[in-house]
Design goal:
35% strand; CvfB_S1_st; CvfB_S1_3rd; S1 RNA-binding domain-containing protein
Length: 306
Amino acid sequence: MNRYKTEAVHQLLRQESRMNMNAIEVGTVQTFTVARETEHGYVLSKAAEEVMLHINDTAEEIAVNDKVEAFLYQDKQGKIVATTYIPTISFEQYGWCEVVDKVDNLGVFVTIGIPKHILVSYDDLPQSTSLWPEIHDKLYVSLQKDKSNRLIAKPATENVMEREAEPAPQDMLHKPISGHVYRLNPHGSAILTEEGYQGFIHYTERKQEPRLGEWVQGRVIDVKGVGALNISLRPVKEEALGEDASHILQYMENNGGVMPFTDKSSPDDIRETFHISKAAFKRAIGTLMKQKKVKQEEGKTSLISK
């Protein structure tokens, strides 16, 4: 065989090898032929490769020689298997996936529409486990592979969210809004609303930090020129005044009827204890003093006994 024919054969073998590899690549959707039926399911074939389709991995009635579209993933033993349940996400496609389990020192698992649940690694979750998603929260993720070639779910980056979001109209100001939290940082929480708008909740506009993936409801307090929203989870002032005052009264009742805070206290101390601004604290204290429920003296606020 001359060198030209030899090279042609080598190219053909390399092409066939790539076809075989692609036919059984985890995370892909392929079209297979049903080669034979077994006790536990079916054997699918493509390009001289075979893969198992367990009976629990299909809701379809299929027969030998049928063509079936199947998604490939690794089972608990690490073996590549097929399912005719096609996932809602892919390596290129992002989507909201529901959290179904949470494992300390590992991460959380989401459902992507196939029988196996997929891991979101703790490396992609907040450092504090108290801010990890809970069951039924949702994360905006796509498929990726880890170093061991296993499928994992990867949360979208800020660039991806900016690309996928829709600009909000200017008439959204003051309207109620809802969405899932997709990013946390020291300054606040970012959400994608159910309409597909990006929103930001500054840490001063919430009572407590929401979890990653949590569904939150608030109101629009600003619409930026690029169509992004500033959102508050706090009620309007009239409602907040009563809520804040009640919170302060409860705090005092739980601490012997007195607290080391007045309208002269530092904003940081007030926020750390009550999770409200100093302005909100002063309004609430002023209301309580007008109602003759509290008094301030010697750097303290005390309940007025009746």
